[in-house]
Amino acid sequence: MDVEMEDLKTGTVVVEKVMGKSTATRCFSKYPLKFILPRKVGSSQTDAVWIYALTYGGGIVSGDSISCEFTIGDGCTAVLTTQASTKVYKCVGSRCSVQIYEARIGIDALLVVIPDPVTCFSTAKYSQKQVFRIMSNSSLLIVDWITSGRHESGEKWDFTHYKSTNHIYLEGDEPLFLDTVLLEQGSTVTIAERVQDYQVLAMVIILGPKLKHVQTKVQEDVKNMMSEQLQLPATSLRRYSAPSTSHSLIKPSFLASCSPFGPQGSGVVIRIAAMTTESVYRFLQQQLASLEPLVGVLPYC
Amino acid sequence: MKNADGTKKSRLTNPGLPWSQWQLLDSILPTGGFAHSFGLEAAIQTRMVCEPEDLKIYVVHLLENTGSLLLPFVYSAFQSPNLQTWYKVDKILNATLTNEVGRKASIAQGSALMRTAASVFTEIPSLKVMRQTSLGTGVVNFHHAPIFGMICGLLGFDSGTTQRAYMFVTLRDIISAATRLNVIGPLGAAVLQHQVAAIAEDLSNKWMDRPLDEACQTSPLLDTVQGCHGYLFSRLFCS
Predict the structure, then answer these.
(1) How many CB pairs under 8 A join A and B?
(2) Hey, are the CB atoms on A179 and B41 less than 8 Å from each other?
(3) How far apart are the first and last CA of chain A?
(4) Residues 192-211 of A with CB under 8 A from B
(5) Which of residues 117-136 of B touch A (CB under 8 A)?
(6) What is the DSSP pairing of strand A97-105 with strand A49-55?
(7) Is A129's Cβ below 8 Å from some Cβ in B?
(8) Does B216 contact A196 at a Cβ distance shorter than 8 Å?
């Protein structure tokens, strides 16, 4: 990459096979971003490069703009994660903070994106975009999640604007998965009203041959978990003026649904709404435990 | 023709237009909208909607999500109601409807609408031709929003009417589903529909005339709940 292009990017990582092992052959980052690539994660059998993305000051400041490029070579495995939840600080002068990640994943390669959640502080404005370009037989796991804010300070869905875009393209720019979630404080409907009592929203995308076992397990588990919650037939819930203290009217504290997408259902997307961050961490620990042999450690532990 | 007082009766420049508009928006048109509850059935079983007040909130969130996510697709197809644009818009929508329940519902409704429109609006032979060319080829999924926009464009509706009409049919169908799910009675439903109309107008104005790359979902909770439709113990609706 020539010098001019480099100036536009806040971070770049290239992972390629060197002597049969996934290796970061290029790693560049500049303020406000810092990449840390620990040498040893997991056993010596593990073939994965771990990339920690840190922001100076522990969070994203109003007006920050972060733009990164990742290239995961054929057959390689890389993990992109954070050290702590991404805090987006309050908005100053109506400047929106922006983070853009673009990743190319090669044939038979695996990219696992397992960050901690984003936490937007009161009045924050934040927009993130993640674009993944995959080849045949690429595998991809993406966790994208947000909490309602600093609950301890009473900040619940108190930010101004949050937008998260996740795009996955097959070869030839064929769109496979195009999703944008926009949470914007409105004059008539607040974000809190839109999300009701839930404090955490999460999305997990699981795609590719190396993750088939993860897909199968999560679909089965979510189906079982939700079926238990929904067993009451609709007739018993029909009320015109029932007392709201009735037990059957309590919302589930963890709501999830799974959807296949793509040709032959090659991908699965799980959407989650939960009342506690811990319950989502637990869910992710359980569902992603089988990744350990691929990435070296248990994710989210 | 003259009125009783001798003044000339005004004639419409496009006399068939209002009649086509009313027919397209009438729930009696056989497009299968009655089979879908837009996640309401699941919302009831997850206790998100228990009382008529909850229903109003649900309807407003659904309308906003329809505006933010689907109006760009109605608009794009409306502007260029031809085969090439239809295929392109349909493909992007297919990747955008990541919720399988919603995606299948869109395909079912779109297919039914295309079939009906091709038979009914014979003054637009291209509808039948486009449908015949595309059936069974797998190049297009027959999603609802682009087909709706395309039909309105070919019938000569204006842009604002088309996009409002899309919001209207969504409102019409969710209200109808709510009465069948017994959340509200038929008269209460009619009252609610009128109450929501002003909000629907604001939302239509807010979200209309946007390009495809601005399509987004504003109610992720709705998406999560709608996705639970497949887990329901007993169901009345397909989605």
Answers:
(1) 138
(2) no
(3) 36
(4) 193-196, 198, 201, 203
(5) none
(6) unpaired
(7) no
(8) no
CA diameter of chain A:
70
Taking each helix axis from N to C end, the angle separating B144-155 and B17-25, rounded to the nearest 10 degrees, works out to 160
Say what percent of chain B tops pLDDT 70: 100
What is the tally of helices (H) and strands (E) in chain B? 10, 0
Residue range B155-185, pLDDT digits in tens: 999 999 999 999 999 999 999 999 999 999 9
The percent of residues above 70 in pLDDT, for chain A, comes to 91
> Is B199 near chain A, with CB under 8 Å?
yes
Q: Could you tell me which chain B residue has the CA closest to the CA of A274?
A: B221
Q: In this predicted structure, what is the pLDDT of residue A115?
A: 97
pLDDT (average), residues B136-147: 96
State the smallest CA–CA distance between residue A220 and chain B in angstroms: 11
Name the CA dihedral angle for B77, B83, B89, B95, rounded to a multiple of 10 degrees.
150
What average pLDDT is seen over chain A?
A: 90
H or E element, residue B130: helix B125-134
Structure tokens at A278: 């811990």
DSSP annotation of B45 reads H
| Mean pLDDT on A259-278 | 94
Amino acid B236: pLDDT: 81
Q: Is the pLDDT of residue A238 over 60?
A: no
Strand ranges (E), A161-212: 161-170, 174-184, 200-207
DSSP per-residue string spanning B133-174: HHTTTSS----HHHHHHHHHHHHT--HHHHHHHHHHHHHHHH
CB contact under 8 A, A194 and B61: yes
DSSP, res A166: E
Residues in B closer than 8 angstroms to A118, CB to CB, are none
pLDDT tier at A249, thresholds 50, 70, 90: low
Indicate which of A181, A248, A259, A270 best probes the interface with B, i.e. most B CBs within 10 Å of its own CB.
A259
Q: Tell me if chain A has a CB within 8 Å of the CB of B234.
A: yes
Q: How far apart are CA B196 and CA B191, in angstroms?
A: 9
Choice between B16 and B199, residue whose per-residue pLDDT is larger: B199
Domains of chain B listed by start with CATH number: 46-224 (1.10.4190.10)
Contact A251 B223 (CB under 8 A): no
Mean pLDDT of the A158-181 span:
97
Asked, as a colleague might, if the bond just before A263 is cis with ω within 30 of 0, I would say no
pTM for the model = 0.93
| B15 CA: distance to closest CA in chain A (Å) | 39
Query: Which tens digits make up the pLDDT trace of A210-236?
Result: 999 999 999 999 999 998 887 554 444
Whether ipTM tops 0.85, in short, is yes
Helix (H, G, I), strand (E, B) or coil at A289: helix
